[in-house]
Every structure is written in C-alpha cells, then in structure tokens.
Amino acid sequence: MREFISGLLHRHGDEVPILSHRNTVTHGLLRADVLAHAARFEAVGIGDGSTVAVQVPPSFSQLEAVLALWSIGAQVISIDHRLRPAEAHALHALTRPEFLVHPGGEVAPGFQERYGLVVERVDGLPASTPHRLVQFSSGSTGRSKVIGRSTRSLIDEVARFEASEGMPRLGERLLLLNSPAHSFGLIGGLLHALAAGVHLVFAASPSAPDVLDAARTHEVDFVTGLPFHFDLLASSPDRSALRTVRGAFAGGELMPQDVASRFLAAYGFPVGECFGTTETGALTMTVGDTVRPSVGPPMPGITARVRDGLVEVALPETPYLSSDDPSRFSGGWFRTGDRGEFTPDGELRLLGRADSLVVVRGNKVDLTEVEHVLRGHPLVTEVVAVGPSEIRAYVGTTSSTLTADALTAWCTERLAEFKLPQHIHLMDTLPRTPTGKIIRNMEPLHASYLQAHLAGNNGVK
Description:
The protein has about 450 residues and is α/β, with parallel strands linked by helices. It folds into 3 domains: about 1-10 and about 25-150, Rossmann fold (3-Layer(aba) Sandwich), CATH 3.40.50; about 155-355, Rossmann fold, CATH 3.40.50; about 360-455, ANL, C-terminal domain (GMP Synthetase, Chain A, domain 3). The protein is built from 12 helices and 24 strands. It has helices spanning about 1-10, 25-45, 60-70, 85-95, 150-165, 185-195, 210-220, 225-235, 255-265, 365-375, 405-410, 440-455, and strands spanning about 15-20, 25, 50-55, 75-80, 100-105, 115-120, 135, 145-150, 175, 200, 220-225, 245-250, 270-275, 280-285, 305, 310-315, 330, 335-340, 350-355, 355-360, 365, 380-385, 390-395, 425. The strands form 5 sheets. The chain has an 8-stranded mixed beta sheet, sandwiched between helices. The protein has a 6-stranded mixed beta sheet with strand order 6-5-3-4-7-8, with helices on both faces. Strands 15, 16, 17, 18 and 19 form a 5-stranded antiparallel beta sheet that branches. Helix 9 links the parallel strand 12 and strand 13 (about 270-275). Helix 2 crosses helix 3 and helix 5 (about 150-165) crosses helix 6 (about 185-195).
C-alpha cells in the first residue's frame, strides 16, 4: 500500500489542484501535509501493521490522515463520525484497534477544511490480516458486518474507475457529495481523483443552496452523490448553477426513477448510476441515458453472473473479517443480495433486494412494487415496506393532512388485495443509517416511529 499511495501522490505536478472547499489544496501541498501527518503518526508508534480507527468528519484533515496512515503501512478502520460513543465502542470491540484518531475539539456541521487531530493509544491488537481498509456494512437491513479490503482490491477498483467511460478526467472538476469517509467517496472520489488528476470540490453542507453555490463558484464539470442529494437539487432547480456540468451519477444507493426523472426535467441532463457494495467496491457504471432499473454494464475487470435470480460477483477471498457467511460467499463467488438479470446488450437490471420478496397468505409479493405505488402519491417523499408475513409500510411525508386511510385507498386502486399494506405508519422523515441509506430493518424502523409518537411529534400520524 505504501508504494501505491506514494505513486498516487507523485503522479501529478505540484501546482495541479486536487481539493477545493473555501481554499484550494494542490498536489504539492497535499504531499507536504500527508508527510507531516505521517511523521506525527510514526512518532507515537504507528507503523507497518498498526490498526488505527479513524473517526474524523469529512474534511481535508480526514483525507490527509487516511493517506498518511496508508503511506506508513497502517490498517485504517473507518468509523463514521456521526456515531454515538456507544456505537463506536461496539465497532472498536469488533476490530480491536491499537490507536484512535479523532478531532480534538468540537465537531462543526458540514464539510470543514481542518481539524486538530488527537491520536489516542488504546488496548488493541496489530493487524492479523493484510487488509489495508476495514469498513462496516451499512446496517440498513440488520447488524453491520466487518469488511476488509486488500491493497490489491483497492488498486483494482481505482483502475476500474479510470477505465470506465464517462468518468471525470484530468483537469475536470468533480463536485463530490458522497462522504469521503465511506467507500464510494474515498475510492471513487479521492483515490480516483489522485490517479486521474481530477479536481475535487466539496460543498459546505448537503443543503441545496450550498451544493448549488459550490457548483456555481467552481464551475464544476461533474456531480456525484446519493439519490438524497439529487432529490434536493430537483426540488430547488437552478439551471444556471449547473450550466457547466457535463454529467452526473448516483453512487452509494440506488436512484429511484421518479427522482431521476425530476432531476432530468429540472436540469436537462440525466443522472447515471454506479452500483456496488461495500464488500466488492463499484461493480457497474453508466453515465449516460440510464433506463432504470438498469445500472449499466459491469465495469472493466468485473466478473458477474446471475444465479438463482441473484447477482453474484467473483472475488478471490471472503470480504468478511469477523466471521464467514457461507450464504454470502462460497466457492469464489460473493452473493450481493440483489435480484437481477442481464439484458441482451449486457447491462445489469436490478429487480429488488432478495429480502424484498415475501410471502403473504401463500402469495409472493415484491415489496419494491408496494413501495413504488406508495411513492407515486404526490404527498409522499419516501417509503419503506417490510414483511415477512404481513406488510407494513413506513411513509415519509411533509403533509399534515395525509392519512393512512387515504394511502390505503390509493393502494387499493392500484394493488391486488393480497399486496396491500396491513399497516401504514406516517412520519416526517424515515430513519437512516450513518451513510444516509434508509433503514429497512423492522425493529429500528418501528422503534423510531414509536419514539417520535411518544415524544408527541405532530409529524407522526
């Protein structure tokens, strides 16, 4: 990993810009900052094979710390800065880091340039595997799993991004709305930018005004983000702010067709799709006229198949470090948990999660169909439907007049009787994981609903 990071840091000239927020960092300045961080880390005992949990908010400091740790051979355990201490401690117990890196002062909202970082030595263990990046599954459908990425897998993923048609290239400005603390933002954002000479731009916050201001100020060429970001932009259209943009795609979570359609209508160009998992990295890419549920062809170097209706990807080893899961990885194939099929022209079409297919009174029901019908209501902003024996729908809405009875009537006109939700719970907004994905696990969903209800939140219906 040392050689890989050194090569990326020295690939472009000193004056080539790499990061911009309020100020701009060039490749030369980044190299100097990474070197200074590395010297400080080595001075406290971090070195080859050390395990370091990094819990730093999105910032230049977070990016420089990760690069510095990799440059001295450490294993980086990436922990979302928004987790509460109890949540972070649970992940520490799973991974046993020797060092913790975190901000020394108060954490500010939004993207910041610099934090004073504290390095804390704790009672942990050195790396027992050659993995350089340790992450955790999103937890949107259950308990998070510990995932390891090797140097080879990271190098291969950066190469896939470089070889993919339509990706930002040398000298182009990419407005990166995905968090660089997570897989896509770190690898498809930072590492690809270092390799290709792309100029990364960060918004002060994920709000539409700040995103549009960053796009306008820096005259960006490309935008990537979660569907959440494109939904915000579609709801606050400003064509002039994105007048220089040549392309965009969603990465980190699948884009609903209605969000993509509204964004296209507002700005005049489509949002493509980058599909992948934390376990595998990016798998497919399409920047142009995506016809969902297609998520494009497999990226260069990816071998994928559909077996028993589920998408599988060839991997040289299990991605899980805490325990093997033979239902997910077996015989060199990782089962993504997504149902899909390949089109005649080689594009992957996703047909919903494996756990979205439930049986109600002997009838098979695809929960994504129920979600699609509910999302079609003009007062509904987001939906999750869960099973398994009866269907419950959790619906986000800003309306104070929408009722569960009205939504039941809406569904009755559009769904067979056995597909109807038995319970519809309305909330201001649905709970999300730290990565921004809507939680789909029944227990935390209902607990969030009850908590809002008991707190007397008028948004709970």
